[in-house]
Amino acid sequence: MQNVCIFVLAILFCQVAPDSDHGDAVINYTSEDFDAALEQSKLFVMFYAPWCGHCKRLSPTWNELAKLYNPLLDQTLIIGKVDCTVETALCAKHEITGYPTLKFFHDKYSEVVRYKSARDIQSLNNFIEEQLSNSPEKPEAKVSTGGLFDLTDDSFPKHIETGSHFIKFYAPWCGHCKRLAPTWEDLAMQYVGQEDVSVAKVDCTIHRATCDSYGVRSYPTLLFFRNGEKVDEYQGGRSLEELQGYMDTQLAVINVNADRTDEKIPEKVQVEEEKPQENLGAIFELEADTFTAGISEGFTFVKFYAPWCGHCKRLAPTWEELSKEMARYPVVTIAKVDCTFSTNICKENGVRGYPTLILFKDGQKVTEYTGSRDLGDLVEFMLEHIPQEVHDEL
Hints:
This protein is of the alpha/beta class. The protein contains 15 helices and 16 strands.
């Protein structure tokens, strides 16, 4: 048994890189091993920058703290560090905006606790003992008085297993989420009492596993689920009327399919019939992992934009109208890319100002549109590039 413990300790401490400035007893974490470490134990982590004077002054104390906890055989807690000048993505994920930032992680999914008190060894140790004795329990799903389900990593799979569910994935600090919150509660009230139908929400700062599994990368993300499967991402307006109209459309699809069950229509045919209803006139929001596939077939007219850009905001309703106008052409997709989020995609396509409008054909850039942003001119531009045989078919 002793040999096994020594072997486990050897694996844990192989992550340590000598760093005399920031503690040689402290375990250094990277993006590759951080989440895996959280599966094994609790972490108390110093996010730092090598040039930071406050970080250097804290380091001897942080190293002493590591000597107290890291050698323990049960590995209940590990004292770690992350160099934010190297692990920029990891630090951004955990919202590090100053150095040093000290955060206590109970596990991969629970709410993170930020340490804001004195930085002497006794105060740090008292905080650790308090956290260890008060480990948070994962909350169960609950329903507000308005009928809005608050889902967790544990309750999510069972909740969506059957029926239809419109779910908001959000972060408490997100301004757009805060503005949507009262409308989302009002939407939930519209469906109280309907069997196998719900409006729900998931806090992605706590229940990261669920959000990660559905590729949630921005907030709020609104997804519609049917019988345990994600069927659509909502990208329309956020008024109560628009959200309820979308929800009713999705529920109507279920009723239509239910009426057809006696006909025993093959599953493939049903999917092909539903798809145009769901995507009719939709603007496809492309990101780093969907951009290449999104422009790979047919004609894709892409708006590269920034949410803060005034010209982009003025173009937005016209862009939506354009998507509706072009919905009759199956070979045409109207899309957009948020350059504050998908920066590499925008750089690769030479975007230097907002909005930039580029037409792609079968994955290749055709031209950049520099004309008027009037709906009529945009439609005319698209029709000039669509082959005549497509016009003839319609």
